[in-house]
Amino acid sequence: MGYGGYLTLVNGSPNDLTVTGQHAYQMDSWSWPTISAGKSAKVYMEYGMKGNTKDDGAEAYYELTGTSNKFSILARKPSDYQLTISLDGLATKTSAQGSSVNMGFRHDEAVNWILSTDEAGQFWSNSGATTDWMQQSLGSIGNRTLKHITMPGSHDAGMSTFNPGTIGANFANTQAQYLDFYAQLMAGSRYFDLRPVISNGQWVSGHYSEVEDSGVWLGGNGQSVSDIVSQINTFTATYHELIIINLSHTLDTDNNYKDLSQDQWNKLFDTLKGINNRYTVTNPGSTDFSTKVLNDFIGNNAGSVFIFAQLPSGISLGDYANQGFFTQENFPIFDSYSNSNDANTMESDQLQKLKDNRAISQGKDKFHILSWTLTQQPEDVLNPDRAIMNLGVSVNNDLMDKAFNAFTLDSFPNVLYVDALGIRDKPVVFPYDKVRSGLATNSDLASLAVAVNNGIAGRNTAVTGG
C-alpha cells in the first residue's frame, strides 16, 4: 500500500474543467475526471512506496472548456509529499499567471482547490488572501439581495476560548471556535451567532444548555463582549464588509439561568452600542432587511454591522430600534440544526431541509442557514476526542464536495454555518490537557462562498437580473 490523500476540485465557473492529459511515475493511484460547471470532485491519489520514493511524481492537465485558460496539478516528493497547482494559462485575483500554488498534502484527508469565475470574467481561488471578499465581489453581488448571497457563518462565534462555568464543563464540550472573533472575520466569516450572558456581573459569550429540562445547566464562557466589540471595530476600521450578528440564547447565569429582564437587555444594547458602523434606520417597523441588496449596506465603501436579536416574550427594543438594533421580524431566517453527532445523518438532514425549504423559482427564499454542525450527545460530553471543534473539522471539508454538489441554481444556502471555522486539523488531541496551538488556518470557506455566488447563484438570472 502507498501513502494516499485527496484533492477536492471545486469548479465554480460556467465552463467544464476538462482533463487534457495526465501522467504518473511510481504513483499507486492517479486518475483525474472532467468536472462539470458548478460541480466538484474529491479525487484520491496515492504515492507509491517502492523504489526510490523521491522519484514519485505525476501531472494532470486541465483546461476550461471553450477557453484558453488552463492549469496543472503536480505531485512530487522531493523530501515530503507535495501537491502544487501550476497556473500555466490563467491568473486569479491573488495569483499571477505562471505562478505555483503549494496545496500541501494531508494523509487520508483532503486539501482543496477552489476555482470560480465572476460576472466580469475574473478568476477567484483559495490561493492567497481575499479578506475583503464582499467589497471585491461588489461588481457581481452588490445588486443582489442578501437572500441571494452566500457567506460563511460562525456557530457559537464567541466561544473561541473556555472560561470555567458549571461543573462538568470543559473546553472539549464548550468551546466551538478555534479562532477568535477578529480572526474569524479575517477568515471570511460574515454571519455570527453571538450568545451574550451575564457571568460574575460581566457580559461574556456563553455556551449553556439545560440537561433534559432538569433545571441543571451545563456550560461555560468564552470571549468577553467588550473584547468582541473591540475586535469588530478593529476589523471594520480597515475592511468595509457587511457583518451580521444574531443575538440569542441570552441568560443571567448569576441568577439561576433566568432570561434577561428588560433592564438587562437595555444594558446589553448599551454595551453593544460601542460597535462602530452599526446599520441604523429610523423607525424600521417590520421591514425585512434580508430583501435589501448588499450595496444598501456597504455600497458607499464603508463597513456595516447589522445586529438583530431573538427577543423573548415581553421584551422590546424600544428606542434601540432607531439605534442599530433589529428584531428577528426584521431578518427572518430558516435555522434548523440536526441535533446529531453522526456526519451522514446531519449532512442528509441539512441537504434535505435545503431542498425542501429553498426554491427561489417558487418564492421559497427565506434567508437559509445551512447548519453544518455536529451536536455532542451524552456519550460524547466526557470524551475529549469527540470535542465540539473536533466534530466540526470532521465535517467541514464535506462542504466542498457533498454540499456543493447538492446546491442548485434554484436552491443554495445563505450561510455556510460551522464550528471550528478556518482550521482543518483536530485541535483537541491526546493528552487532552489543552487545545493545540499554532494550527494552520485557511479561508477555504470564504472561497467556497464566493464559488457559490459566482458559479451557482451567478448563473440564475432570477438572482442576477440578467
UniProtKB/TrEMBL annotation:
Molecular function (GO) terms for this protein are: phosphoric diester hydrolase activity
Instruction: Tell me where on the tree of life, at the top rank, the source sits.
Output: Eukaryota
GO biological process, any:
lipid metabolic process
PANTHER family given for it? PHOSPHATIDYLINOSITOL-SPECIFIC PHOSPHOLIPASE C X DOMAIN-CONTAINING PROTEIN, PTHR13593
Q: What is this protein called?
A: PLC-like phosphodiesterase
